[in-house]
Amino acid sequence: WGYIALGQGNNGWQSESTLVMFNNDGASGTVDNYSNDNGMINHNTHDFTYTLAANPDGSFNMLVTEMGQPTQAPMRLILSEDGNAALMDGTISQKRKLEVLVKIDAGKTYGNTDLSGDYYGLDYGHSGMNAPPPSGSNMAISNIMTFNATAGTFTSVGRANIDGILLPDDQSANPRSFAVNPNGSVSIRDGKLIGYVSGNGKLAIASGPHVSGDNPGTAHVYLKRGDKTYATADLAGAWAFAGFGDFAGTTFRSECG
Known about the structure:
Layout: E1 2-9, E2 12-22, E3 28-37, E4 40-54, E5 60-66, E6 75-79, E7 85-88, E8 96-102, E9 117-126, E10 138-148, E11 153-162, E12 165-170, E13 176-180, E14 185-188, E15 193-197, E16 203-207, E17 217-224, E18 242-247, E19 251-256
């Protein structure tokens, strides 16, 4: 699985980009993790064990123990119906967090064609990770992104909210680079963002904890736009959701339901 997280708490900001491998034994795994804690970049790999307990609402309580460490506080995991995506409940940790996972198809060799066409994009970014509020700036973007697999570039058109100021965000004349790696990871904007693509290519996520500057406190989610005419009936049923945002750059909130 590919995993990204963006969190904010009393001790500041944290962003993560992680490759998680759950072993076939249903009890252990490994992680390859990049994190940025208030501007301090870390990279580590380690093993872990875990247990899952099903909840009546379809979510799971997850207990994780990293090697040589005490068991972490309980986590709540919500899997999508097709098993290609998951949300973590970012309201129950010490930080307010947005946490998203995508299932990587370990049996295929990925390429740029796995991230091609139009995607709905949602981004949140914070600059000045090592400075207390209200230093830095906070930005949310909603857009439609077009990935050109042959050229290895993407463009976007949407709107941005930068510290409460609403602005158009038209990057249609500003193509930026991307490259999908054979293992399902993706490098975006010449490596400024690390991301992951689901096996069916319908969902991608990205974050930038491994770089200093250039808004390393970011979370990006891309949802493939279907080749169809959507209708109200496409929204029928029960959905899981997660959110993250700020008010005036000083009050931050995460939600999951």
